[in-house]
């Protein structure tokens, strides 16, 4: 995106070191925002921090964060606020794919890990972002769901359940906050050319088959979802809350 809607504003991207999150951090920077990037992996985080700073002189802070630990979410918020004063936008994008296979073959540990990251992690981020925004003039929050959050996908049942949960959490939070100056939306990407997709289908499904299942005939790139996230946070989406924006090339239309 070439517009600069977010000058003198700050965006937090949780799960921002790779894939959609990394592209979102760069898109916010291109739109004029300061960016806080949270995620796991110090080397990847420092690289994103450097890449964001290279975009028109944007300011960036990376904070290594495990989204399943509330103490680390609290520390992230403290560091972001200490650095930039307040947050205007937040994106809860951290997620894992889990193990590919039929529902009856998954272990309890598989279930607990996927839900901890994909749903509990989104809720923890949302919880502390909302508390901050309620006392600092409002804001916009976007949670990353998936096309699996609006339809069923076989062999990734718990992943599908976690992403449905993100949609429900987004809707309920949006209703609670609609008159308090905070908009809460979600994006639901279809197949995206990221490590998560390739880990999920690797050895099980040919990427060409995945691409052929999409009406547009291709797997998307991370920046296509990033641009949707940035738009949902902008004033161009000022009357939109509680919505799940599908970025799926028509995958779920049928």
Give a description of the structure.
There is one protein chain. By secondary structure, the protein is α/β, with parallel strands linked by helices. It has a single domain (10-247), classed as Rossmann fold. Helices cover 44% and strands 15% of the residues. It has helices at residues 19-30, 42-53, 70-84, 108-134, 157-177, 195-201, 207-213, 222-233; strands at residues 10-14, 34-39, 60-64, 89-92, 139-144, 182-189, 244-247. A seven-stranded parallel sheet has the order 3-2-1-4-5-6-7, with helices on both faces. The chain starts with 9 loop residues before the first strand and ends in a 7-residue tail after the last strand.
Layout of secondary structure:
Elements: E1 10-14, H1 19-30, E2 34-39, H2 42-53, E3 60-64, H3 70-84, E4 89-92, H4 108-134, E5 139-144, H5 157-177, E6 182-189, H6 195-201, H7 207-213, H8 222-233, E7 244-247
Parallel strand pairs: 1-2, 1-4, 2-3, 4-5, 5-6, 6-7
Helix pairs in contact: 1-2, 1-8, 3-4, 4-5
CATH level-1 class: Alpha Beta
Structural class of the secondary elements?
Answer: alpha/beta
Order of strands side by side in the largest beta sheet? 3-2-1-4-5-6-7
Tell me how many strands there are: 7
Number of helix segments?
Answer: 8
Output the helix-strand order.
Answer: EHEHEHEHEHEHHHE
Question: How much is the radius of gyration in Å?
Answer: 17 Å
How far the N terminus sits from the C terminus, by CA atoms, comes to 30 Å
CATH topology: Rossmann fold
Strand proportion = 5-15%
Number of separate domains: 1
Uncertain regions: pLDDT < 50 for 5+ in a row? none
How would a textbook summarize the main sheet? Answer: 7 strands, parallel
The CATH architecture classification is 3-Layer(aba) Sandwich
Q: What's the CATH H-level superfamily name?
A: NAD(P)-binding Rossmann-like Domain
The 3D shape can be described as globular
> What's the pLDDT, averaged over the residues?
94
Helix content, binned percent: 40-55%
